[in-house]
Amino acid sequence: MAAHVLPFEKPIVELMARIREMREITRLTSQGRSFDTELKRLEEKMARLAREIFSDLTAWQKVQLSRHPNRPHTLDYIETLFTDFQELHGDRRFGDDAAIVGGLARFDGASIVVVGHQKGRGTKANVKRNFGMAHPEGYRKAERLYAMADKFGLPIITFIDTSGAYPGIGAEERGQSEAIGSCLAAMARARVPIVATIIGEGGSGGALALALANCVNVLEFGTYSVISPEGCASILWKENGVAADAAQHLKMTAPDLLRLKVVDSVIDEPVGGAHHDRKAAADLVGAAIRKAMAKLAGLSGEALVEQRYKRFRALGVVKE
To answer: What values do phi and psi take at 174, rounded to 5?
Structure first.
């Protein structure tokens, strides 16, 4: 069983554990054939149960899944999808922010620039990564990478997974809002294809600074909103206890995001969520990125900038 199990996913996790045990017994003994029928029955039961449970999740339950500590993070996807990754550090102004990682890599043999929010696993790693909440130097590092990609004609691939930019005093003193604004401007004018994928939670301008892209994908249980449910609840209802209601009203889950055209596609996740099969999740994300890159491949630099501009100008437009 996974180290962290949400209440509604417990039946699925228990079935997965039984299947893994039976596969291990099959591997270690010569009586493997005798378990084939039972294994097939359990796998069918797990698939059926997963469809029943995950087809009826509330918005708040999907928020919990998007924050699951076992979900694959940016460096997990980089390790699986890219080769020759060379991480670049620092913003050349203040320092290096571990909440945002990025650098040069190859995707299907082609040189690209990759940038993403990075959370940690465990207390020590999360403190180092500041729980994925970047300081201004993190966004200025991302801006530097965008400018480099634009200069050398390298496509940009980003991964979004943050509750928002860090709101601390030091971050404000060093120009948090200006750093995010400059980041957005750098993305907006980049004359290269940009594909963004929301792999966990995407909160506020801290997420948008990596998401002003030609194509924005979201994982099936990813979320994306202007504010966290807890923050929304504290502002509108003056209490955190109604965060579940806020999540429903924010329309922050993948189906709502697709319906509202905030994202361009929803990427299916493995049975039980991406955290149960990181390799399969990465393969699905990689396929979605390839599809988006192929669609953008024939556009000129000017056309890419124009497409990006029109995409975001169209958000929120209501026709009666």
So the answer is: -90, 10
